[in-house]
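Incident log, support desk, overnight shift.

02:14 A customer reports that sequence design results differ from what the structure should imply. Their input is reproduced verbatim below. On-call engineer (initials T.W.) acknowledged and began investigating.
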């Protein structure tokens, strides 16, 4: 009679592989979220610089990018007043200073969100490494089990 081989169950290996794949997908989603937060941060910093630049060059001509690599020369009529998108397609008029403060607050929020996303990514990577380590050990153990000769019942 063939004794039950002790060791890892192939179903456990399959389950671990599924977990690893799921964690990889989650990691990709969080990486994309982190990239979006970084993009928003860069845009907010650029807007703050632009507001300061416009205030300093009041009356002068500025270049207004309209997309597609096209810019127009424009004069800012009211450099102290800006239109600020506060979300959900709601735009409000604010002073330049208020807009800068709003953008700075958003920067703080984005940085805090980025830290949380980075922590989550680190936890996911740790878990992925642990699962990968268990998978590798399991595959090695499984291969060793498969390589063992089965005792011949007639030669006993």
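02:41 Re-run completed on a clean worker. Output:
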């Amino acid at each position: 009679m063939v004794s039950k081989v002790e060791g890892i169950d192939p179903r456990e290996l399959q389950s671990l592989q599924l977990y690893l794949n799921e964690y990889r997908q989650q990691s990709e989603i969080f990486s994309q979220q982190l990239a979006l937060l970084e993009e928003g941060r860069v845009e907010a910093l650029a807007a703050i610089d632009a507001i300061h630049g416009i205030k300093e060059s009041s009356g002068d001509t500025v270049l207004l990018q309209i997309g597609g690599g096209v810019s127009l020369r424009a004069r800012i009529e009211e450099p102290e007043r800006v239109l600020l998108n506060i979300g959900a397609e709601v735009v409000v008029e604010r002073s330049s200073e208020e807009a800068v403060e709003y953008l700075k607050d958003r920067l703080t929020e984005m940085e805090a969100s980025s830290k949380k996303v980075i922590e989550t990514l680190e936890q996911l990577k740790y878990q992925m490494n642990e699962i990968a380590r268990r998978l590798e050990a399991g595959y090695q153990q499984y291969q060793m089990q498969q390589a063992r000769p089965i005792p011949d019942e007639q030669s006993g």
